[in-house]
Design brief:
Blueprint lengths: L7 E10 L2 H7 L16 E8 L10 E5 L14 E5 L4 E2 L6 H5 L2 H14 L6 E5 L4 H12 L3 E6 L5 H7 L3 E4 L4 H8 L4 E6 L5 H5 L3 E9 L10 H10 L3 E3 L7 H16 L7 E6 L3 H9 L6 E5 L4
Parallel strand pairs: 6-7, 6-9, 7-8, 9-10, 10-11, 12-13
Antiparallel strand pairs: 1-2, 1-4, 1-13, 2-3, 3-5
Length: 305
């Protein structure tokens, strides 16, 4: 059991989502960004056990995500976790733990990436990496905002899931993405949410209309060198934003996450929960994620001993 101290909140973890960042850490790919020994997990949902500062009450439902969680300090892969108070966000909800557990990192990232694009109803957006959990969240947020949504998958069998989630145009990405987008929309799309990564974005940038904007918010291909992509964006005169998870804390995302949860409860946003696992099945859950079998979010539930 973690020992509480001022400025930190002890949380009883009820569920946590899985993320590819944890695959990278587990395989040793995070380098000096993660200090070991470490309990990984960049998000969780649960209940307050103790807040020494008295700002949160015991039993209050909270969510937490990113902010060096599971990297600089122990994260969500445990029954009890001690988190910086600034990153523990109280919410009001009637959602089940597995549904709530699918929201924090996924929807916060999708929301932040779309915000960077500053799109308006009637605009169009390309979600590159649409069958990822963040991609699915971005689709449902974009459709609710009145955007025309182009979404990609590398597996044709997953296309139906994108359509069911609200995508207007599903594109099988075989390396010639921009050409396929421009065949449907000759003038290009207004915005690009890039989730595949720093290499794949170079082709995707060519699908943008003049004046279009792009934001890279995911690195599914595990390539992190942005220099070539930034050079390509400059050559096309495309603003290329980079979404940073460091912005997710109580001050900046408290109201945002409550709005997201409310929209889910109202049926406006669709939570794409692919599968749940128990804590004892965590190795199987990682194998499932590593095999790219999910369409949407994988969530692990903790249980009382």
């Amino acid at each position: 059991m973690p020992v509480t101290r001022p400025g930190w909140v002890l949380v009883r973890v009820r569920a946590f989502g899985l993320n590819r960042a944890e695959l990278i850490t587990r395989s040793g790919g995070s380098g000096d960004a993660v200090r070991f020994p470490r309990v990984i997990g960049i998000e969780c949902v649960g209940e307050v056990v103790e807040d020494p500062d008295g700002e949160l009450r015991p039993g209050q439902t909270v969510v937490a995500a990113m902010g060096e969680m599971g990297r600089a300090y122990d994260g969500g892969y445990q029954q009890y976790t001690l988190l910086p108070a600034a990153h523990v966000i109280p919410v009001k909800t009637t959602l089940r733990w597995e549904t709530l557990g699918a929201i924090p990192e996924t929807f916060a990232t999708a929301w932040g990436a779309l915000e960077e694009l500053r799109l308006a109803a009637g605009d169009s957006v390309l979600i590159h990496g649409g069958t990822s959990s963040v991609g699915m969240a971005a689709i449902t947020i974009a459709k609710d905002s009145g955007l025309t949504v182009f979404a990609t998958t590398r597996q044709e069998s997953k296309g139906a899931a994108l359509t069911a989630n609200g995508a207007d145009h599903v594109i099988v990405d075989d390396g010639s993405l921009a050409a396929k987008v421009l065949k449907i929309a000759p003038g290009g799309v207004t915005g690009l949410v890039e989730l595949v990564g720093a290499v794949a974005v170079i082709d995707a940038l060519n699908a943008l209309a003049p004046g279009g904007r792009a934001c890279i918010a995911g690195y599914l291909e595990d390539e992190w060198d942005l220099a070539p992509a930034q050079a390509a964006a400059r050559g096309l005169a495309v603003p290329l934003a980079v979404y940073s998870s460091s912005v997710v804390d109580r001050a900046s995302y408290g109201q945002v996450l409550q709005r997201i949860i409310d929209a889910v409860q109202q049926g406006r946003y669709r939570v794409n929960l692919d599968r749940t696992f128990e804590m004892a099945e965590i190795a199987d859950a990682h194998r499932y994620m590593e095999g790219n079998r999910a369409v949407g979010k994988i969530v692990v539930l903790t249980r009382d001993d």
